[in-house]
Amino acid sequence: MGYVMQPSRPIDWIRNAIRYTRHSPKRLDVFKKCVKAEKIDSKALLCLDIPTRWNSTYKMLDRAQKIEKAFNAFDLAHPNYRNNLRDGVPKVTDWSYARKLRNLLELFKHKTNNASATKYVTVNMFYIEMMDIYTHIRNMKGIDPESRLMADAMQNKFDKYWGTNNKGLNYILYFAAILDPQSKLGVLSFGFACVFKAEKKERDQRGT
User: Fold this and answer.
1) What is the pLDDT along the chain (208 residues), one digit of tens a residue?
2) Contact 57, 10 (CB under 8 A)
3) Does residue 83 contact residue 36 with C-beta atoms inside 8 Å?
4) Which residues contact 151 (CB under 8 A, 6 or more apart)?
5) Which positions ≥6 away from 16 have C-beta within 8 Å?
6) Which of 61, 63, 156, 166 has its CA 20 to 30 A from that of 47?
7) What is the DSSP string of the chain?
8) Which residues of 87-104 are buried (b: 16+ CB within 10 A; e: fewer)?
9) 57: buried, middle or exposed (CB in 10 Å: 19+, 13-18, 0-12)?
10) Rounded Cα–Cα distance for residues 186 and 194 (Å)
């Protein structure tokens, strides 16, 4: 599933900080020295995300949050860093939010990896993976207002492909789940009953 990340000041600031450090070999070299000076045990290189790919945003935040102290040291070692970013230098609260978002996106990363595997059959796994994602999105709605907005957008994208109104769904995938001894028809029926019940409850609460 592709999804355009909702605008977020903390993530934008961290993204801009990464972009600044990667802008030239000289800046990157100074940053690497900051990583070493802070004795951070991480060999992962900084990377920028693609806003329409959850995995890339997860990867960007996962790498950056591990070396937060290096950004603070870089702020002192490279005066133009703060002059260029001005009020956009990531603060403690920004890093805290980034870690929370990183944790929320981690499940999507694992599910994508599972679905993209090439050394074993994955078609029979789609139902369990889909239900895990559905449950995760719904749980996100109860964390805080920002997470709910993000989850609502994710839910819309999810429903486009897997929702009850999708007319172009490939039902062969369901048969693959039914034929899997770990799933069978009973588990499939139970899962969709939970989905439909949850959707109806949410519609009733919104009065639609």
Assistant:
1) 455 455 578 899 999 999 999 999 999 999 999 999 999 988 788 999 987 777 889 999 999 999 999 999 999 998 889 988 888 899 999 999 999 999 989 988 887 777 676 676 666 677 777 778 888 888 888 788 888 888 888 888 777 776 655 555 556 666 776 776 766 666 666 666 666 666 666 666 566 5
2) no
3) no
4) 137, 138, 140, 141
5) 85, 88
6) 156
7) ---PPPP-HHHHHHHHHHHHHTSSHHHHHHHHHHHHHTT----PPP----TT-HHHHHHHHHHHHHTHHHHHHHHHH-HHHHHHHGGGS--HHHHHHHHHHHHHHHHHHHHHHHHT-SSS--GGGHHHHHHHHHHHHHHHTTT-HHHHHHHHHHHHHHHHHHSTT-SS--THHHHHHHHSTTTHHHHHHHHHHHHHHHHHHHHHHHT-
8) ebbbeeebbebbbbbbeb
9) buried
10) 12
Tokens of 208: 């639609």
Amino acid residing at 96:
S
